[in-house]
Inverse folding.
């Protein structure tokens, strides 16, 4: 819809722009509504699962965890090791200027555990699994597979969406724990090369830096972004209607929306917990 | 008058391009009713099946299945949730990431609540009757359209469907496959409560009363 469209003929230019803006707001709310509908369907679907359905959902969830967590492990660990090392190098330069290198491990732990871990893992999950989920859902919809599932008596929300959301939360949590551990190890290795730093001292300082708040923040961020990424990517994938040309658009929108949600929820939670 | 299994009430259906496929269509399918739809390509046979399965949404009017209207966007229809619909589209409508066996097993477990071992036994039995025993572990992309359609037929049979909506197989069938499909449909038809709407292939003609589809109308042979 553009201000030059036929339906706006006869309107003044400001009125056309206002109509265009109104259309965008309406679409944004409609989108939010459909995502909320999927989320509530997911929760209702979880509550209504029969015993055999639960076993099927568990099998699909296990498969999802393999794709999202296990298959992402190499890239996740390499990124964590490099990020931990590079972050420490930067922090070390700043701290040594003030002669307070003893705070090195505490600062590193807080940066990695509070912010970098959940953020980087979220980005990796979006890039690897979110795009795959959006593409998969869009192709299933275009090929009529979703219709066939419904006609066969299988609720797509329970069978397709629920395992992806559950798998997303579990994968995100597992990956963040491993990411944090490896990033801190990478940081220690770099520090050990440049400073007379012993492992017991480093671990002791880490223990002091990690409290209940850090664990609660990590858990909350994993829960929110681990659930939101599959939900958004699935929702955008399901929005395709008829043409395969809609598929790349759906995947791009899914990625952008997931990234925005990841950044916004991360920032909001950090402000709420640490401010 | 007993309640029909399926009723189309004043249904108007438009094609994606905006052409009227059915206009104010009223049609009833009683329990045990068997129809074989005639009509050329584009007459509306597939559209009728999609309407009856709740996949195509009518422009106006309503489709009532087993006493409950089919509504788009609502929760899974109770008749569908019970696994009572045997939906056999042209391409089989199978999940591409599952083997033929798992495609048949899935609704048995999910909709009918059967255990994995029992579901696999039943699925294997019907896949073998469809001549698909040797390719049961293949995914749909490997065996081709004919086998996907047959697997879909086996899935409908394994579930003990009460209403069969069967579209013509994509690309046709060889004589052995026709015989296997015919036997499966006749076996299902032994139950007097089972209703069927079969579209397209001439070999299906003996399985039900003729149904004329065309000019936006549906009716018994000659009344179309």
């Amino acid at each position: 819809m553009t201000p030059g469209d036929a339906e706006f003929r006869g309107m003044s230019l400001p009125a056309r722009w206002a109509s265009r803006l109104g259309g965008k707001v309406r679409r944004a709310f409609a989108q939010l509504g459909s995502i909320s509908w999927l989320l509530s369907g997911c929760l209702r679907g979880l509550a209504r699962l029969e015993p055999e359905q639960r076993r099927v959902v568990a099998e699909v969830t296990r498969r999802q965890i393999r794709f999202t967590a296990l298959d992402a492990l190499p890239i996740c660990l390499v990124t964590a090791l490099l990020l931990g090392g590079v972050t420490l190098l930067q922090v070390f330069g700043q701290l040594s200027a003030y002669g307070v290198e003893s705070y090195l491990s505490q600062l590193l732990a807080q940066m990695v555990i509070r912010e970098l871990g959940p953020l980087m893992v979220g980005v990796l999950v979006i890039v690897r699994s979110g795009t795959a989920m959006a593409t998969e859902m869009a192709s299933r919809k275009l090929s009529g597979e979703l219709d066939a599932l419904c006609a066969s008596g299988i609720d797509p929300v329970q069978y397709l969406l629920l395992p992806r959301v559950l798998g997303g939360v579990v994968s995100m949590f597992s990956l963040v724990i491993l990411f944090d551990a490896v990033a801190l190890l990478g940081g220690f290795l770099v520090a050990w090369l440049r400073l007379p730093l012993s492992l017991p001292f480093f671990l002791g300082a880490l223990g002091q830096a990690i409290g209940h708040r850090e664990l609660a923040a990590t858990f909350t961020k994993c829960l929110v972004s681990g659930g939101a990424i599959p939900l958004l990517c699935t929702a955008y994938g399901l929005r395709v209607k008829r043409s395969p040309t809609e598929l790349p658009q759906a995947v791009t929108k899914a990625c952008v929306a997931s990234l925005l949600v990841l950044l916004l929820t991360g920032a909001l939670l950090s402000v709420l917990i640490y401010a | 008058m007993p309640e029909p299994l399926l009723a189309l009430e004043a249904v108007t259906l438009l094609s994606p391009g905006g052409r009227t496929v059915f206009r104010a269509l009223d049609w009833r399918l009683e329990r045990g009713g068997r129809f074989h739809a005639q009509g050329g390509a584009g007459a509306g046979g597939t559209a009728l099946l999609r309407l009856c399965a709740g996949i195509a949404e009518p422009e106006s009017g309503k489709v009532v299945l087993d006493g409950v209207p089919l509504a788009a966007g609502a929760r899974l229809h109770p008749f569908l949730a019970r696994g009572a619909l045997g939906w056999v589209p042209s391409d089989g409508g199978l999940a591409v990431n599952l083997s033929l066996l798992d495609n048949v097993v899935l609704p048995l477990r999910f909709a009918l609540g059967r255990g994995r071992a029992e579901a696999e036994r039943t699925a294997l039995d019907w896949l073998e009757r469809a001549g698909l025993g040797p390719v049961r572990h293949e995914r749909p992309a490997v065996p081709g359209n004919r086998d996907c359609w047959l697997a879909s037929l086996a899935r409908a049979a394994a579930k003990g469907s009460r209403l069969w909506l069967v579209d013509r197989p994509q690309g046709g069938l060889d004589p052995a496959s026709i015989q296997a499909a015919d036997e499966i449909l006749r076996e299902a038809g032994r139950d007097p409560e089972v209703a069927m709407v079969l579209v397209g292939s001439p070999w299906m003609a003996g399985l039900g009363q003729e149904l004329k589809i065309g000019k936006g109308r549906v009716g018994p042979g000659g009344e179309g």
Notes: The first helix of chain A runs from residue 13 to 47. DSSP finds nine helices and no strands in chain A. The interface with chain B takes residues 50-53, 55-56, 140, 143-145, 147-155, 158-159, 242 of chain A (CB under 8 Å).
